[in-house]
Amino acid sequence: MLALWKKEVMTFFGSLTGYLVAGVFLVILSLFLWFIPGNMNIPMGAYATLDSLFWIAPWIYLFLVPAIT
User: Fold this and answer.
1) Given pLDDT bands bounded at 50, 70 and 90, which one contains residue 57?
2) For residues 39 and 47, is the Cβ–Cβ distance under 8 A?
3) What is the pLDDT of residues 25-36, one digit of tens each?
4) Are 53 and 33 spatial neighbours (Cβ–Cβ below 8 Å)?
5) What's the pLDDT score for residue 25?
6) Is-contact 60 52, C-beta < 8 A?
7) By C-alpha distance, which of 23, 48, 21 is closest to 33?
8) What integer is the mean pLDDT of 20-25?
9) Of 1, 26, 43, 54, which is least packed with CB atoms within 10 Å of its CB?
C-alpha cells in the first residue's frame, strides 16, 4: 500500500499539475484566512486558532479535487 501511495504522489508531483494545484490551494486558503474580512480572518479575531483552517480546507478541497480529476 505504501509503495502504491508513493508512486501516486511521485506521479502527481512529477508534473506541473501537482505544484499548480498545491499553489492554488495555498493561495485560496491564505486569502480566506488572512485577507478576506469575515469570521475566519485570523488578524481580525481575538486569538489565533486552527479552527478556521480546519473548517475552510475541506470546502476548498471539495471544489479543487474534482477540478483536477
Assistant:
1) very high
2) no
3) 999 999 988 888
4) yes
5) 93
6) no
7) 48
8) 92
9) 1
Residues in the chain: 69
Nearest CA-CA partner of 30 in 15, 40, 17:
40
Q: Where are the alpha helices (DSSP H) in the chain?
A: 2-13, 16-30, 51-68
Per-domain boundaries in the chain: 2-68
Which residue is it, cell 485570523? 42
pTM of the entire structure?
Answer: 0.77
> Which cell is 22 given?
498545491
Distance of alpha carbon 31 from alpha carbon 64, whole angstroms: 15
Distance separating the N- and C-terminal Cα atoms of the chain: 21
- Residue 37's contacts (CB-CB under 8 Å, 6 or more residues apart) are 44
Interatomic CA distance for residues 34 and 27, integer angstroms: 10
